[in-house]
Amino acid sequence: MNTLSRRGFLAASAAAIAAAQMPRLAFAQSVAPISLSAATRTLDIDGRAATVFGLAGPGGQGLVLDPSQRFRVDLSNDLDVGTIIHWHGQIPPNAQDGVPDMPMPLLAPGETRSYDFEARPGTHWMHSHVPIQEMQQLAAPLIVRTQEDLAADRQEVVMFLHDFSFKSPEEVLAEIGGGHGVGHGADPGAPAAQGMPMGGMGAMQGMDHSAMGGMPMGNMPSMGGMMGMGGQMGGMAMDLNDYDWDAYLANDRTLSDPEVVRVERGGRIRLRVINAAAATVFWVETGTAEARLVAVDGHAVQPLAGSRFGLAMGQRLDIEIDLPNEGGAWPILALREGARERTGLILATQGAEVQRLDAVAPSEAPAFDTDLAQEARLITLNALPDRPVDRSQMLMLGGSMQPYVWTINGAVWGQHQPITARSGERVVLSFHNMSMMAHPMHLHGHVFQIVGLNGRRVAGALRDTVHVPPMSMVDVALDAGEAARWMLHCHHMPHLASGMMTEFAVTASV
Ligand SMILES: [Cu+2]
Hints:
39% strand, 7-stranded mixed β-sheet, 6-stranded mixed β-sheet
């Protein structure tokens, strides 16, 4: 092992894998599908056991696919509740997209369902599309490697971020939403969060919103220059962090017992960061080592040097890190925006002393990208082809903490007007956030390019999830895909659970 470079080692293992698969590759149809199990598991959260959900593949939580390997997966529901998994970042046929009853029902307990589609390379993930299950950690990495990943002399490290509560998700939603109404929405007979695409709270009619006091509203240090009002926007405070979680996790662990990843002196790392949190935006700090952002949401961007990059719920960052030529330990921290809590993992060379890090930082991290400054610095390496726009659609994002209702074009799911397009059309969606809270907006079945930030044209990143800060505008362009109903929603799980979802309804081209 010492005589092999990382590249030599990776090439050797790739060759071994290729050789082992050779006879089967000749008969591609006979290659066995990968088994993936939605099942409970136990985490150790600061010394206290917690039963959560998970997605177990052959090598642990999540899946790693090789270049050009199809996404051929048998998903088993080994939970005692119905579930369905969305392959976030992939573009499967709509029937395999994993949204309850859109069009496939939940997998019943004990049921197995087969999936088979062309996998898209990059750092992606997968999660239950029932919000209260995603809040119980029913989420895992989904990494699809490229030939370049295999050939490159670098080590891959995944950092999967989540937020965690010892309370049940129903209790958490009740506390956020005011203590009443969760699971008692438009369909009072329905069990909470089962069988509805949004999983839950219905139209929030008849709620008692009187218990909204005492909500953690977060702090607003270093608001963007555009605001410049000391945490006030138009006289109203911006809302961050509408729930204080019990713990913040990186690869299912807190900083009291972080993962320590063995690295080589002078080695190159590709850090794949996934924000799977229900309701927490993170900054990722790589420390003193030289680092650059090289991809977002699995799509390459012009390398951007820096040591602190943020990501909202649903988003991913690929950061390349060049370690110094000496031994040592390099913490990779994830800071909760507008707060002092943090989590992370440690990169350490053999024998290096690893110091314990407090899970609470001395000072608060700022709010993330309130002025879209980070987004404005991202330039795609694979712009959409230039062509006229066939259709422009405006999406007004609204709502408030009190009452806790979040809307798209003034409506919650069930009362929504679909956003329409024809397959093949170039469409521009303009997100106007008229609320005081940021919304990470995720469109299923498509990749879009950021083309406008607060009215300024940009050749921005390709993404599937875009963070729209309070009182801001973001335009995205895309070519409408398969004629089907595709979900378009906020990836803040309590917002989604309260109905912040619409559909992008694509009809066949004429
Ligand atoms: Cu939202």
